[in-house]
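Closing statement on the manganese (II) ion sub-project.
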Amino acid sequence: MIVSLKHDADAGRVLNELAGRGLWVSRVERSASGSTVHYVIASHSQPADPADLARIDGVAEVTTPKPAHPLVAAQGPVVTVGGVKIGGASPVWMCGPCSVESEGHVLEMAQVLAKLGVTFLRGGAFKPRTSPYAFQGHGDAALGWMRRAADAAGMLVVTEALGEGHVPFVAEVADLVQVGSRNMQNFALLKAVGRAGKPVLLKRGMASTIEEWLLAGEYVLSHGASGVIFCERGIRGFDDSTRNLLDLGAVALLRHVHRLPVIVDPSHGAGRRDLVLPLGRAALSAGAAGLMIETHPDPGAALSDGPQAVPLAQLGPVLSDLGGAYAKEAVQ
Ligand code: PEP
Ligand code: MN
């Protein structure tokens, strides 16, 4: 919302009035003559009523520009996938290995995960690896393993479509189609994933702004996705003590200002299993609808991302602790 002031307005007083209504206000423009001031407003709690703001002495006009991502703006904070509400009253856990390693492996893991209250089985069949010599995933075969494991355990599947060619296969198997960080601005992929008509878990590009992320969400919705859930997984920082810089400000902004469902991935965010619990707690307090956590029965033997995998035997206490941290505030 943009509030434009009259030429003779007392800008300081108007600013105080706006702030007094609990609005977050930022000055965006002053005219060449120095007399016109515009404020942009984002409401943290209730959306502000433009008619009420227009009555403030000194205000010339209140306009609500059309958002650049209208479908995302209209979606709302809850997306239901396979009967599970993401952004509802309970936190949603998406857990599993980084890579799906074998059918037996994922079958056994799913049985344990389901008992811990994990609703989504995560795992990569097609892996985006920095090195072409690193394990690339078991591909199509792994999709079938995941589906059977999830069905046997009564779970849902979230898995990544790495390229346009994978979309039909992934969309057939997955309840929630993941777009990975490296692909957040692969527009051909976003269109193809949208056309599959499924809900999408859209990971944030590691060097993407929040606006670019929201626009990527608009791509999938405008091409037919049934919903979009944003996933913060860390952005590139300057310090390599952690693998990425988990941007919890972005989580709070998406949840509390844009009112969108956000899942946080503290595994890729930190790259170290010892930080998954504290970062998970912080993410839930910031407004995350749930967490994506990598786990493995024997992290030392994992085919990818072993250092960040929580040992499967330790996941239960971690999830119980995190359940208590879920923000209890009303979602609507
Ligand atoms: C993943 O979740 O398997 C993954 C590769 O994550 P990201 O795209 O966030 O690196
Ligand atoms: Mn991984």
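The chain has two domains: 2-63, 70-331. With this model delivered, the sub-project is considered complete and its resources will be redirected to Aim 3.
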